[in-house]
Amino acid sequence: MSASRRDHLVETATGLFERDGFHATGIDHILAVSGVAKMTLYNHFKSKEELIIAVLDFRDRQFMAWLRAQVERSANSPEDRLLAIFDALESWFRTDTFNGCLFLGATLEYADRDHPIHVQAAIHKRHVFDYIMSLAEQTIGLDARLLSQQFLVLYDGAISVAHTLGAPIAARQARRAAEAILDAQG
Amino acid sequence: MSASRRDHLVETATGLFERDGFHATGIDHILAVSGVAKMTLYNHFKSKEELIIAVLDFRDRQFMAWLRAQVERSANSPEDRLLAIFDALESWFRTDTFNGCLFLGATLEYADRDHPIHVQAAIHKRHVFDYIMSLAEQTIGLDARLLSQQFLVLYDGAISVAHTLGAPIAARQARRAAEAILDAQG
DNA sequence: GTGCTCCTATACCAATCTGTCTGGTTACGA
DNA sequence: TCGTAACCAGACAGATTGGTATAGGAGCAC
Fold first, then answer.
1. I want to staple A7 with a disulfide (CB 3.0 to 4.6 A). Which of A3, A27, B26, B98 is the partner?
2. Kindly report the CA angle at A75 between A74 and A76, in degrees rounded to 5?
3. Domain harbouring B150, CATH code
4. Which domain holds residue A60?
5. Do A104 and B108 touch (CB under 8 A)?
6. B164 occurs within a structural domain
7. How many domains does chain A have?
């Protein structure tokens, strides 16, 4: 067992939360799947809520690293990279573990905007926005802020449509919309 | 009590599910808030799942009627109406009961695509798409299908961003993106 | 060896979950 | 007035929830 028990727990819980949601996934189920003892969990996390926050933090780092790598491998100019985000989305949608956005799910299940889980989930969306923004700022002649806000809408919309309708092609439609926005501004 | 007990139950449950989610809202809580007896509920619905499906059906009809009325009151040409959808969204986002998309939440909490609840929730998204499509088809010179798909992405994206980041302004950004798409096609 | 830390295993707790059962009340129509 | 249908109130069942308590095993440093 190379990874620590804590990491193993977080990774297992991530998969289960992503598949079934937060309330629907019980502590006992996470323990059974991960093969970890209950007291070990409560030794590392003082509550389920704290575990969820750790999961959101882990998934944020993991996903952002994956997204950056995917984008930077397939495109070089900032403009192409902005569009490559949607190509990355499509390949994510086509994995068989895709089940919508874990973070959006967290904000829906813990809707109170001050709830620690909601706050933690919102941080991820900020990270996505910041990444888009960093690419937009490298492209001269753009209203970087407006464009980033619009791209974030396309980004989240593609995820939602792909999930609710089971239509990975939503990513391509979002990309074409993004191209139209770029053309209108550039 | 003018409305039937059944209707009263469905409307109360809609509000609670919208605020707290499905798994987090217990039957007993719905009964306490609505002031209905447990056996009355189980007389009308054979399970919580059946109640949820009734809620999704009710909310679909209610929301679509509201959206149509809002759009048709504020714009006359099909093209203006396509854009007025996003104005309607913004006024929805600014209500103090706005809590993201109930239907998207349903598909996340019941992720299995064959689950009756997931199926029922997806129907609503189809209805939104069909409405957009009906407007797009009245506007000549458009690839109605592609445009509708892109608008649906903007529609869902605006809801998601508005909810996760608490930013009703996402609707206006979506509208500007929609204008760019229209300009590019028209 | 002794102690310390991390882990397992299992029993347990109180609360809550969905759903059932019983028995009584209210309203209304024939 | 009688019957019936809808509803209420509350107890109850069985499973599951998040979380705690207890006892002991395994690996490692001194």
1. A3
2. 140
3. 1.10.357.10
4. 48-185
5. yes
6. yes
7. 1
